[in-house]
Design brief:
This protein has 10 helices and 15 strands. By secondary structure, it is α/β, with parallel strands linked by helices. Strands 6, 7, 8, 9, 10, 11, 12, 13, 14 and 15 form a 10-stranded mixed sheet that branches. A 5-stranded parallel sheet has the order 2-1-3-4-5, sandwiched between helices. The protein is globular.
Amino acid sequence: MTPGVAVVGVGPWGANHARVFGSLGALAAVTDIDRARAEAIAGRHAVPALAFEAVLGDPTIGAVVIAAPAATHEVLARAALGAGKDVLVEKPLALDLDEAAGLVECARAGARILMVGHVLRYHPAVEALHALVAAERLGRLRYMHATRLNLGRIRREENILWSFAPHDISMILALAGAMPVRVRAIGSRHLDDAVADVTSTALEFADGLVAYGFVSWLHPFKEQRLTVVGDAAMAVFDDGRPWPEKLIVVPCRVRFDVDTPVPEASAAEPVPLVPREPLKAEARHFLARVADRAAPLTDGAEGLRVLAVLEAAERSMRRALPCAPRVAVSAAAARAASAKIEVSS
C-alpha cells in the first residue's frame, strides 16, 4: 500500500512535489504557513490543508516532503523524524553541517528513511553519464566543469553557493566516487554585502581530478551544463538542450607530434535517453525506499558529503589567508560522511 505523504511548504517547488506525489496516488495532505496558498494547492489535488502539527499527529501520514525555506529544514525535519515519519528534505539538508549530522543520527536511531532532494541524480542523462564513467568509456577522468546560471530566484536566507551548487556538487561527487582533498572558492556580492551572488569553486581530488563549479543568479540567461573530460573521451550534459541532445560524447585523444600535443577529436555522439521527469523519478524512488526500507540513493550520508564541501567552500570564500587544513565536524558527521576535507584559500 502506498504510504500517505504530506508536502510541507507548497511554494513554487513544493507545489511541484504536490503535483508529482498526487499523480502517484500518494499525496495525503499539504501544509504551508500561507493558509490561502495551502488551501489552493490542496483544492487542486483534493487533499486537506493541515497545520504542521496536525500532519505530525496524523497516523495515516507516514512520510513528509519538506520543501520550505532552507533555514527551516533542520527544525522541520527533526520534528517529522521525531514523530516517526520518513522524510524527504529538499536541498540543502540543512545550513549547518553539525545540525545535518544530528538529523542523520536521529533518522538512524528511529529507523526512519531520510532522503535529500538532489533531483538531478534521478535525471536520465545523469544516470547515463554515471554509467559511461563506470564503464570507463571516457577513460581516466581529468577534470569536470559545471555551470548553473540564471537571472533569479534571488534569496536572502542563503547565498548562491548553498542555493545552486548542491546539485552540481552531488553529481561531481558521484562521478568522482570520492571526496575532494581540498576545496578553493571565491565569491562576489553585488546586491547585499552579506550574501554572495556569484561563486566559483574548485574541488581537488587525491588522484589529480579537479572539478570546477560556477554559479550565479545574476546572469542574463539560464544555463545548466556539466562537462566531464577524460583521457579517452569527453561528455557534456546540457539540460537546456532537447532530449536527443541533452547528453553527448565526444571521443578525443591527445597525441604528441614530437613535443607538440595534438588533440584528435571525432564527431559528437548523442547518447539515447528515455525522456522522464526527474522529480517524478525522485518521488518514485522515495516511495520505494519507504516501502522496502533500503537506503536511498541520495540518503542523509550523501547529503552530509555535499554539505561538507559547501562548508569548506564557504570557509575558503570568507578567508583571505590560508584556512586550517581540515574542516572540524562533529563525531556524528564524521561517521556519516566518512571523510574530512582540506580547505585552501
